[in-house]
DNA sequence: GCGGAAGTTTGAGAACTGTCAAACTTTGAA
DNA sequence: TTCAAAGTTTGACAGTTCTCAAACTTCCGC
């Protein structure tokens, strides 16, 4: 496990990449669960119906697109929604997605 | 050519389908060109780099998702952005996409 | 009517991506 | 030090979809 996973800066965000990230139902569900919660969530604590390794893949896609920030606490990896950064880069996008 | 192509009602719009429609760069470009223009646009008049038959496919995806409305004028098919309907179903979504 | 213009349909190929299984790494606790 | 927990990595497979080519349909103008 990389100690410090790569996270893009806000200036590096790309709409195409963000759209490709949230178009997947599993990933969009992850984003919505983070948005609905008032705390960061461990990878293993999400309500998703895919295998562990598949989840890892989805988290990576979300992280590289700039949607989430990941950090370790012990053996667990916590996930945080980068709401402020996203609102800066694409105002209104996250809110528009919360609907569905 | 079907005289009257199928268009979904606003109540039938589905976010997942809309996202799948706009995630494709060619289709998103079509939507943006319609949004930027103050008039409807013929299929053949879009600035896209794909074959005619591929374009037909993209227009169909956009139409079935509810993003555009199509109607014939002679041998030409005109395309209109369903902005009002989309704003009703997914407020803020179209505006958020106009950025990129 | 005939030919051209504008799209559509169908078929097929290439590329991408979501998924799981199995093996591996790292960390915390007993 | 040993073991279990939590994720990651790699490999492979299946399904989807973007794309083009070729043949076809419809409509307009000559």
Helix run count of chain A: 5
CATH architecture of chain A: Orthogonal Bundle
Number of strands of chain A: 3
Strand content of chain A: 5-15%
Provide a descriptive summary of the structure in words:
- Chain A has 100 residues and is of the alpha+beta class.
- In chain A, 47% of the residues lie in helices and 14% in strands.
- Chain A has one domain: Arc Repressor Mutant, subunit A (Orthogonal Bundle), CATH 1.10.10.10.
- Chain A contains five helices and three strands, in the order H-H-E-H-E-E-H-H.
- The first copy, chain A, has a three-stranded antiparallel beta sheet with strand order 1-3-2.
- In chain A, strand 2 (68-73) and strand 3 (76-81) form a beta hairpin.
- In chain A, helix 1 runs antiparallel to helix 3.
- At the A-B interface, helix 1 and helix 5 of A face helix 1 and helix 5 of B.
- Chain A binds a DNA duplex (30 and 30 nucleotides) through helix 3.
């Amino acid at each position: 496990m990389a100690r410090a996973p790569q996270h893009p800066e806000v200036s590096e965000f790309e709409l195409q990449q963000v759209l490709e990230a949230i178009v997947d139902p599993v990933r969009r569900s992850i984003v919505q669960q983070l948005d609905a919660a008032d705390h960061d969530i461990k990878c293993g604590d999400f309500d998703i119906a895919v295998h562990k390794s598949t989840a890892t893949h989805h988290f990576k896609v979300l992280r590289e697109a700039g949607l989430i920030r990941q950090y370790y606490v012990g053996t667990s990896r916590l996930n945080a929604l980068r709401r402020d950064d996203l609102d800066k880069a694409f105002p209104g996008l996250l809110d528009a997605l919360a609907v569905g």
